Amino acid sequence: xxxxxxxxxxxxxxxxxxxxxxxxxxxxxxxxxxxxxxxxxxxxxxxxxxxxxxxxxxxxxxxxxxxxxxxxxxxxxxxxxxxxxxxxxxxxxxxxxxxxxxxxxxxxxxxxxxxxxxxxxxxxxxxxxxxxxxxxxxxxxxxxxxxxxxxxxxxxxxxxxxxxxxxxxxxxxxxxxxxxxxxxxxxxxxxxxxxxxxxxxxxxxxxxxxxxxxxxxxxxxxxxxxxxxxxxxxxxxxxxxxxxxxxxxxxxxxxxxxxxxxxxxxxxxxxxxxxxxxxxxxxxxxxxxxxxxxxxxxxxxxxxxxxxxxxxxxxxxxxxxxxxxxxxxxxxxxxxxxxxxxxxxxxxxxxxxxxxxxxxxxxxxxxxxxxxxxxxxxxxxxxxxxxxxxxxxxxxxxxxxxxxxxxxxxxxxxxxxxxxxxxxxxxxxxxxxxxxxxxxxxxxxxxxxxxxxxxxxxxxxxxxxxxxxxxxxxxxxxxxxxxxxxxxxxxxxxxxxxxxxxxxxxxxxxxxxxxxxxxxxxxxxxxxxxxxxxxxxxxxxxxxxxxxxxxxxxxxxxxxxxxxxxxxxxxxxxxxxxxxxxxxxxxxxxxxxxxxxxxxxxxxxxxxxxxxxxxxxxxxxxxxxxxxxxxxxxxxxxxxxxxxxxxxxxxxxxxxxxxxxxxxxxxxxxxxxxxxxxxxxxxxxxxxxxxxxxxxxxxxxxxxxxxxxxxxxxxxxxxxxxxxxxxxxxxxxxxxxxxxxxxxxxxxxxxxxxx
Length: 755
Hints:
Layout: H1 2-30, E1 35-43, H2 44-52, E2 57-71, E3 79-87, E4 97-101, E5 110-114, H3 115-121, E6 125-130, E7 133-144, E8 156-162, H4 163-170, E9 175-183, H5 189-201, E10 206-210, E11 213-214, H6 221-256, H7 258-266, H8 271-315, H9 325-331, H10 333-359, H11 363-368, H12 389-394, H13 396-399, H14 404-439, E12 444-453, H15 454-461, E13 468-481, E14 484-491, E15 502-505, E16 514-518, H16 519-525, E17 532-536, E18 541-550, E19 559-561, H17 562-568, E20 574-582, H18 588-598, E21 602-607, H19 608-618, H20 620-652, H21 654-662, H22 667-705, H23 718-744, H24 748-754
Parallel strand pairs: 3-8, 5-7, 11-14, 14-19, 16-18
Antiparallel strand pairs: 1-9, 1-10, 2-3, 2-6, 2-9, 4-7, 5-8, 6-7, 12-20, 12-21, 13-14, 13-20, 15-18, 16-19, 17-18
């Protein structure tokens, strides 16, 4: 238990410290710019002059951005919108992480595409539409970056091309139309951005954009922190139980060693010698347990971080490079030493009560006593002497003020509380998924590879109206908000496909530039209902007002009024998504196939159940596997704890059991007495759980809410009550049976002869 407690406490502490640092490390490795300015093509020498003449700029980089269309002769998709970024072969700002292939060299006719689109065309040629005609580029690599949105949630792919090559294609040799700026330390980026923007505005319109990291489409980090935080709290609980086990184990050994202690005293051992012997033993046990736990904690932390990076790679579109085990040990040596020393120190302190008790045993009494008999037998009669035998036996040690039965009750109570928290957390995740599923009222949605005219699509889709409840249009894109890049959905005010419950404010209305955010995004962006947000991309920037806050614990997506999002991309009247709900008894897969064949520019589709499955992979499955493993572990350790604690009473009372058997009581009835005793203690623990479990779950909710951008209330349920009752029964019955078999497995003749 000490090993496990230290392992979980230390491992989760390292993971919680390392996950945010790992995320920030990716931003640092990218060397993110603070802001960017887009303008009409200007001579590179002029842009250099303006930047060098502006105060507050630490570093800048010149680029060309050009949105066009890429084609494939064979393969999927046949065409897609693509944003070409002309860069030098050495990136100083907004760097990328290569996934496959290599970076281009010199001015070769090659291209590096972000991985989600690039993996389909890697090491192949693609045609790219240019003002002078189509050109052929070889895909030499794929990449990811924290500032580059995933193609999987956007119809626009991102790619990098040698700067001079793109200048030649666009006939703007020596010119650029974008500058990335990193401001000097201590300066406000907005002030420098406005100052620099004014200098470029005399040459034409300027689009200002605060650079930022890509916000994941599906929330992962908050939930992962929630899970890791839960494991950490459980680690502290198990560490406390582990200390009880260590104390009871030491005390258990003492009760078995009275005869040996008496023998040592008879040969001249002093009280100091006895205490020293037990201190050395405890120090050895504590150091071994703590050292093992600390070593295993590095593996636990590595596993937790590995799981986070796997989830991030799949759902956030970012590559994180985890550190090696040796590097993790080096970076967290203070934490490892702290928890290792804590376990050793506590084990050293806990030995003193047992050691002092053992050292006070007189040599004559210890040698004369049966193994495990108490040092003090005053012959006092129990107040329960006229009660049933199993009740007298159950409360025998309470009368002697040993309090071991109370320890057993607390052990069961702590174990049940830990298990109840795990089960309640798992139930909460299922509730979140159900709430999300109810809020998304559609069966599937289709994404188009290009923006399409809604009138033409209406004609194409008119054949399917008899099989659908509704078929509505939407618009999606990516934009930057306050240093973050978001995937945004443009929705009509009366759209039937969203049924979110609102925490504050209202839903979108006609003819307004509004946005509805989640609770998580409200905290991240530090805004409230009524505040204004600026949305920007490489073309435009618009202002929208936060009109509502929706309860959505899965999707990190701002929902913006349809016309506002269309105007951001200069795509008035255009759409790129179709949301469909089919009627009952209609074959879903069949209608998806039919629509695919009839809709031009089909890119991909997602079923609602698939979207919910993503959340289930992150939430329900992770919690269920954690709950199963931890419940099994606490069950086994609880049995061991009960055996070691109550076993001390058995050692002290072997003579009583031997006498009862000598007077004619059979082995089965002796075992039944012990079983009834433990079951009575289990009943007391059940009463304690019924009184305090709601309070404990509320405390866990408050503590865990500090690690997330949202609150999840962990409440008791019928499932928790039934599981707790079964756990108590499954814990007390095996431990009591094993104790009964242990106690009655003594030779009556041998023990009576010895006594």
